[in-house]
Specification:
The protein has a single domain, classed as Rossmann fold. The chain is of the alpha/beta class. Helix 2 crosses helix 3 and helix 4 runs antiparallel to helix 5. The chain has a 7-stranded mixed beta sheet, sandwiched between helices. The chain has 10 helices and 7 strands.
């Protein structure tokens, strides 16, 4: 199965993985700056952009496709990952699935579990994602707009960021509805807390101080439970810190990957 991946720059490989509802175009300005120092690869996950859908649509299936692509096209050359939101969960699972492929990784506004559980309070209520899934069947365009509004809520320059997000989404066509529903199921069902101590690669956890989808407390937990991780909080940022605070975001990733 082919994946649509756009590459630019030269140097050590860095793969950028977007979050739910978004294609690789979300990384536009980030990729341009990072490409001055790295060989940057921006992937459209299955069902987004021109990447075909997969079945079943689950976390292990997504990781398997990405790992197979890297093995086939790049002969397992160790790479760095940068995963945002759902993309961060993919990066974590990939680091466990094929640790020989992953050198370092960056987790942006992500969490081991996006929903609350009996022993996990720093997350969304489980019925919130269920309501999004139901709403998708009625009006997926409106549901995407609502979710994008949550991604920038509370951030500095919130109105401008929301307009930017919507423009980026519309630039590459609408995602496959099955991919949207499957992605929400991944967000609702995934709980990676138990496996975090097994992920030994160097990790940078980037949190938005005002994030309402992946709380700073969840990012702090990630940094504590991963054996070789560091935490970086961005003041004034919400769920998309690479849009609201581009320069400091890129500078911190460069320092981490080159360190």
């Amino acid at each position: 199965m082919s994946l649509h991946i756009e590459s630019r720059g030269a140097g050590a490989p860095l793969l950028l993985i977007p979050g739910w509802g978004m294609h690789s175009g979300i990384w536009g300005s980030v990729a341009a700056q990072l490409a001055q120092h790295f060989r940057v690869h921006c992937v459209d996950l299955p069902g987004y952009g021109t990447s075909p859908i997969i079945a079943p649509y689950d976390l292990d299936g997504l990781v398997q496709r990405l790992s197979e692509y890297w093995h086939t096209e790049h002969d397992d050359k160790p790479l760095a990952l940068c995963g945002w939101s759902l993309g961060g969960q993919i990066a974590l699972r990939w680091a466990l699935h094929a640790p020989h492929q992953i050198d370092k990784f960056v987790l942006v506004a992500t969490t081991p579990s996006f929903v609350q559980r009996s022993d996990w309070e720093c997350a969304m209520a489980a019925n919130t994602l269920h309501e999004f899934s139901v709403a998708l069947l009625k009006n997926h365009a409106l549901t995407l707009k609502r979710f994008m509004a949550l991604q920038v809520r509370g951030s500095e320059h919130e109105r401008e960021l929301l307009a930017d997000l919507r423009a980026r989404l519309s630039s590459c066509g609408e995602p496959n509805i099955a991919a949207l529903r499957g992605g929400l199921e991944i967000l609702r069902n995934t709980d990676l807390r138990a496996v975090l101590p097994q992920v030994t690669q160097a990790a940078l956890v980037i949190a938005g101080e005002r994030d309402v989808l992946a709380s700073p407390a969840a990012s702090g937990y990630l940094a504590q439970q991963l054996p070789n991780a560091q935490l970086f909080n961005i003041k004034g940022a919400s769920h998309a810190p690479f849009l609201s605070h581009l320069d400091i975001f890129v500078q911190r990733i460069e320092a981490f990957l080159n360190g």
